[in-house]
Amino acid sequence: PVIRREDYLPPAWLVPEIALDFALGIDETRVVSKLKVVRNPDAAGATALRLHGDQIAALAVRVDGEAINDWRLEGPDLLVELPGAEHLVEVETQVNPAANSKLMGLYASNGMLCTQCEAEGFRRITFFPDRPDVLSTYSVRMTGDKATFPILLSNGNCTAQGEDADGAHWAEWHDPWPKPSYLFALVAGDLVANHSTFTTMSGREVDLNIWVRPGDEGRTQHAMDSLIASMKWDEQVFGREYDLDLFNIVAVSDFNMGAMENKGLNVFNTRYVLADPETATDGDYDAVEGVIGHEYFHNWSGNRITCRDWFQLSLKEGFTVLRDQLFSADMGSEAVKRIEDVRILRSAQFPEDSGPLAHPIRPDSYQEINNFYTATVYNKGAEVIRMMRTMAGPEWFRKGTDLYFERHDGEAATCEDFIKAIEDGAGLDLTQFRLWYSQAGTPLVSASLSHEGTTATVSLSQTVPVTPGQPDKKPMPIPLRIALFDRDSGTHAGEQLVVLDKASDSFVFEGFAKPPVLSINRGFSAPVSIDIERANEDLVFLAARDDDPFARYEAMQSLVVQHLVAAVGQGLGDAARAEARAAIGKAFAAILTDPALDDLMRGELMILPAESYLAEQMLVADPGAIHAEREALKTWLGREYADALTALHDRAVAVPYGRDAAARGARKIKNQALALIAAGNAQEGARRAYAQYRAADNMTDRQGALIVLASLDVPEREEALAEFHGRYEGNALVIDKWFSLQAGSFHPQVLANIRKLAEHPDFTMTNPNRVRALYMGAAMNPKAFHDASGEGYRLIGDLIRRLDPINPQTAARFVPSLGRWRRIESVRAAMMRAELEKIAAEPSLSRDVREQVTKSLG
Ligand code: ARG
Ligand code: ZN
């Protein structure tokens, strides 16, 4: 069944209050739910009360205290005809959390009980109008064995607790803020807290707890520091204050996604909470900070103002991603953060936008909403709001968000409400800009520069590609930050913002005796692809001199992309190859030694474009050729710049561990340099990697060395992998790394290694982190996934079929990799398609996988 945005109808009944009573047990939990229901004055007609359900049975239904039997089921939903305007409806259900392998609703993880209700998990706990525009005040009571569940948590504040005779205890929780059911949460288990406090700007003291399994509390301080920084930052930057006396975070090891913003009780995947230098890389530290911020910021963008329906998901997710990006930029390096965010967008969202699953940031229809928690809704959603901010300027944008928060506080709002508030508050006209919400596809902007006399003209044109269901596209407003550099002085007269809002347009600039060098889409001001023909010498110039750090990175990437696309596409003669390499080498050498660069930025500039991004530049890609050419370039760089790279590695090795930017930068270039040294000279690479591994006193160094060793066919490889496994036995997050780095390696036997790892006693299909470690590692590894034998496709196809009955949501996440077949050369494409067809032939597929596979086959 297809759900359509245009079919939205307000709910017939509202539920202002709900009281839930849980009798907790790992494999049997009883739930009594009491709903105060009132007819919605805004809904037309007298309709039955619809209570959604999913794989649950109603043990009893009572209306106004009387047991009734005339309720009926419609599919999974329970319908009750109610005569009057207000009633008390009670429903009893029973669930088995231990058997809940989908990890939606109430489930058991590591001996504790927890919930995940977004998007439609609440209906797996009890019958309820499980839609985000039904807001209720929640009172929760839970009873459970005290030894099994010493800690009992829910949303809001704990209002009472006590003991029963038989070793049981109970707690009552009340959340004063009305919320939709997807924000409900309950946690019960043996947990210990890192406790702290935060005083808000108006002087409210808030208790903060980060709850983890006993033994993990020593790895929670970074999460706590990040939480406190988030609370402070949201006050300072968005004027948003926390609104309860208590804020709890719980870390659980079995979780489908990153984390969940349940009101006052965030539930997190352990990987975004636990961090210490011995077990977490610098990247892990950043991810913890970013996700802690993200979930905290949802308290306003998501909870105080929620979504009217799930088509509006980007209202809370796009905005909250932007907020977490700005937060992380303020906490660290703005330049590096921007580059990382663009890299994620290009590697995850661009392929989505150009494939069979393309959808606008506000989709028009879906079959399974879990399939729409995508890079498009999240990351492109953030880019779209970032463009509004760029066009308005930060101060005016803030006036827009202030108005949004004020106007819609307490409501279930729409993307249109957000746009209108930004228009009214920030003083923008977003009439045409709204197309960014309805049109899918990454716009392609063609740019060229001409020069005559002293006039430089920038000519721009745009096309928005055809996407499934959207054959005709209109031009959109595309804000481009540009600068024109004088070649001799290496300076420009100031950056300009031009907005291309027609199919084509040109912009004239005066005062250039010679043709300037064009720097365009600086800071990645619009989420578009730019098609521009530029001489290598111009790109070398920008890579060395552009004062916009993103543009500098972009120039370096373009040099490499232009060369590799040409090499793969038409094959290059020796002279052309030598010329392109010389240009890349010149820019690369400047990056290695430029004293004005900090090492975090230097490390960023040293990263070569991903194979998936290179494939994206070609209509039909040959993954084997892309891999070979990219590896050949790495080898060349490693040999040609061996001295500079070893000098860089030596310098970085001498820097002691610290969490400051300089020490982190040193670790970043250390690992970048090591990888290139190994590409140029396997012996020297293995020697240095092994030494770095042995000497490591932190996970960034240890993992960086092991990643290099894992791709080499050398004896040190096995020894280091075994040492690593032994050292971290029992630490699930680190064992995940062990699986993931082997699955992601370029080792000649990588596919055989992956098959072996799937048989390893530490592997399990029921833990999403472990499944992703091994199989996302494989699906994202071009060498393994696109192996000419088709073995990589079979591996992922088999996985999807075996995982679907256990955890459909996680299984469905693997389909898009196979769904790329149309953009891959024909021999591989046929094998990818065959895997999709084999999945489609399964008799009882989940709605999640069915939707993705059907759309991918097209
Ligand atoms: N709202 C959560 C976040 O963005 C994600 C939860 C998604 N869960 C799901 N089952 N689709 O942080
Ligand atoms: Zn979110």
Automatic annotation (TrEMBL):
It catalyses: Release of an N-terminal amino acid, Xaa-|-Yaa- from a peptide, amide or arylamide. Xaa is preferably Ala, but may be most amino acids including Pro (slow action). When a terminal hydrophobic residue is followed by a prolyl residue, the two may be released as an intact Xaa-Pro dipeptide. The keyword Transmembrane helix does not apply. Its cofactor is Zn(2+). Gene3D superfamilies: 2.60.40.1840, 3.30.2010.30, Neutral Protease Domain 2 (1.10.390.10), Peptidase M1, alanyl aminopeptidase, C-terminal domain (1.25.50.10), tricorn interacting facor f3 domain (2.60.40.1730). PANTHER family: PUROMYCIN-SENSITIVE AMINOPEPTIDASE. Belongs to the peptidase M1 family. NCBIfam families: pepN_proteo (TIGR02414). This is Aminopeptidase N. It comes from Novosphingobium mangrovi. The gene is pepN.
